[in-house]
C-alpha cells in the first residue's frame, strides 16, 4: 500500500479522509489500525535528550502515537491548524473558552446554549472575573450593539441543541473579528461533515465527540479544533491545564470516526422522515428542525449547511405532565436519556423557560427532544404512533 502524504490526503473526499486520516500502517507492521499506547513514563536515550526534550514524546499526558493519530485524522477532516483532545464535551467547551479569556474580559454567549455551558459561564468564569452577557441567537450582525472594549470572545451554537434556533455564523463572525474577538462554535450537531466552521469565520470549533464521533454511547470525549490564529493559545492552555484522554477512549473515538460519514447520513435520512411524519400529527403543535421547509431557520441552514443530523425537537399540544409521561414511558425504541449521537434512539422532555435570560421561551406546549438512531424508521414511527395515542388518551 503506497504511503500518502498529509497534503495529498487533504485533497480527497470527506469519506476517504474519514477512513485514511491519521493511519500509517507501514509504521506499525502493516496493521490497519494504530496501536493503543498505554503509558505515562517515556524513556529518553540519554541525559542530554531528556533535558533538551529531543524525543518526539516526553510524558504520557503530552501525547502518544495513539492520540497523534486521532488528532491528525480530525485535523484533516475539518481543515484546522490544530486539534486538542479533551475527556468530555464540556471539558472541550471549558478548554476552548479559557484558552481565549482572562480576568476582566467580557464574553458574549448565545442564550440557546447547551445548559452545562451556561453553568460553566455562571459558576466558573464569573468566579474568575470574566463577565458573560447572553444574547438572542437570532441577533445576527446586530450583535455589534453588545460588543464592549473588553469583549474578547463570542460563542455560538448552531443550531441550539434543544430549541434549534439557527444562527447567522458568518455575520456574527465578521462583526466579532472586526472588534478583535475570538469566535467559538459548538459544532456537535452538524460536525465538520455538514458545516465548515472555519470556512464560515470560526476560530475555535468544539465538538462533544461523545456524540457522533464516538457514535456508540460507550466513551466520553471532546475535541477543539483551532484556526491558525487561535491555535497557539489553545495548544498552550490545553497542555498547561493537564487535559488528556485515556488511550482506550481515543481508540473508541478513532473507531467511531471511520464510520461517521455513513452513520450521519443514515441519521439524517431517518430523522427527516420521522420529523416530517410528526409534523402532520394533530398531537404535535410544531417540529423544531432547521432542515424542514417552513422552519424559521431553514433559509440559513440551506445557505450554510450541507446536511442535518439525527437530533431535533417537537412541541406537543398543551397537556399535563401525566400525558407527557404516558407518551414517553412506554416507548419501545426511544430510551429516556440525556445524551445523543449514538446508534440508539432517545427522547427527552425539556423546558428552556427556567434558564433563558436574553430571550423568552414560550413554544406553545410541552417540548420533547428526539434523537433518531439507526433502527428501522417504520419501527420508530410505529413506536411514536402508539405513544401519541397514549398521549391523546391521557390528555382527554
UniProtKB/TrEMBL annotation:
The source organism is: Labrys neptuniae
Against PANTHER family, the record matches this protein to: CYSTATHIONINE BETA-LYASE-RELATED
Q: Which gene encodes it?
A: metC
Cite the annotated pathway: Amino-acid biosynthesis; L-methionine biosynthesis via de novo pathway; L-homocysteine from L-cystathionine: step 1/1
Q: Which family does it belong to?
A: Belongs to the trans-sulfuration enzymes family.
Which cofactor is recorded for it? pyridoxal 5'-phosphate
Using the UniProt record, name the top-level EC class of this enzyme in a single word: lyase
Q: Which UniProt keywords apply?
A: Lyase, Pyridoxal phosphate
The record's listing under InterPro entries reads:
Cys/Met-Metab_PyrdxlP-dep_enz (IPR000277), Cys_b_lyase_bac (IPR006233), Cys_met_metab_PP (IPR054542), PyrdxlP-dep_Trfase (IPR015424), PyrdxlP-dep_Trfase_major (IPR015421), PyrdxlP-dep_Trfase_small (IPR015422)
Which reaction(s) does its UniProt entry say it catalyses? an S-substituted L-cysteine + H2O = a thiol + pyruvate + NH4(+); L,L-cystathionine + H2O = L-homocysteine + pyruvate + NH4(+)
E.C. designation(s): 4.4.1.13
Its protein name is Cystathionine beta-lyase
Amino acid at each position: 500500500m503506497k504511503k500518502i502524504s498529509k497534503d495529498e490526503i487533504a485533497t480527497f473526499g470527506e469519506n476517504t479522509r474519514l477512513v485514511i486520516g491519521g493511519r500509517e500502517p507501514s509504521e506499525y507492521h502493516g496493521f490497519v489500525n494504530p496501536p493503543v499506547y498505554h503509558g505515562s513514563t517515556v524513556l529518553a536515550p540519554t541525559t542530554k535528550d531528556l533535558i533538551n526534550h529531543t524525543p518526539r514524546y516526553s510524558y504520557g499526558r503530552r501525547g502518544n502515537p495513539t492520540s497523534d493519530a486521532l488528532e491528525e485524522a480530525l485535523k484533516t477532516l475539518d481543515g484546522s491548524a490544530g486539534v486538542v483532545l479533551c475527556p468530555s464535551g464540556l471539558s472541550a467547551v471549558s478548554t476552548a473558552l479559557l484558552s481565549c479569556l482572562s480576568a476582566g474580559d467580557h464574553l458574549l454567549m448565545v442564550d440557546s446554549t447547551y445548559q452545562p455551558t451556561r453553568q460553566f459561564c455562571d459558576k466558573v468564569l464569573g468566579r474568575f472575573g470574566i463577565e458573560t452577557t447572553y444574547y438572542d441567537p437570532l441577533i445576527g450582525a446586530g450583535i455589534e450593539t453588545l460588543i464592549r472594549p473588553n469583549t474578547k470572545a463570542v460563542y455560538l451554537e448552531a443550531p441550539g441543541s434543544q430549541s434549534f434556533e439557527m444562527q447567522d455564523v458568518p455575520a456574527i463572525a465578521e462583526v466579532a473579528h472586526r472588534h478583535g474577538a475570538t469566535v467559538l462554535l459548538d459544532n456537535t450537531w452538524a460536525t465538520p461533515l455538514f458545516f465548515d466552521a472555519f470556512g464560515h469565520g470560526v476560530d475555535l470549533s468544539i465538538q462533544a465527540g461523545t456524540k457522533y464521533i464516538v457514535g456508540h454511547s460507550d466513551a466520553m470525549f471532546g475535541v477543539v479544533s483551532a484556526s491558525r490564529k487561535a491555535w497557539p493559545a489553545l495548544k498552550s492552555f490545553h497542555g498547561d491545564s493537564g487535559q488528556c484522554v485515556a488511550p482506550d477512549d481515543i481508540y473508541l473515538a478513532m473507531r467511531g470516526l471511520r464510520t461517521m460519514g455513513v452513520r450521519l447520513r443514515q441519521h439524517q435520512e431517518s430523522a427527516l422522515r420521522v420529523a416530517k411524519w410528526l409534523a402532520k400529527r394533530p398531537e404535535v403543535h410544531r417540529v423544531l428542525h432547521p432542515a424542514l421547509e417552513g422552519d424559521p431557520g431553514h433559509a440559513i441552514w440551506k445557505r450554510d449547511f450541507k446536511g442535518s443530523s439525527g437530533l431535533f425537537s417537537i412541541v406537543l399540544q398543551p397537556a399535563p405532565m401525566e400525558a407527557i409521561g404516558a407518551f414517553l414511558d412506554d416507548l419501545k425504541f426511544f430510551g429516556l436519556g440525556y445524551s445523543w449521537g449514538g446508534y440508539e434512539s432517545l427522547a427527552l422532555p425539556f423546558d428552556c423557560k427556567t434558564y433563558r435570560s436574553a430571550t423568552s421561551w414560550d413554544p406553545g406546549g410541552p417540548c420533547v427532544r428526539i434523537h433518531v438512531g439507526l433502527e428501522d424508521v417504520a419501527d420508530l414511527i410505529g413506536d411514536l404512533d402508539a405513544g401519541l395515542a397514549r398521549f391523546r388518551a391521557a390528555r382527554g
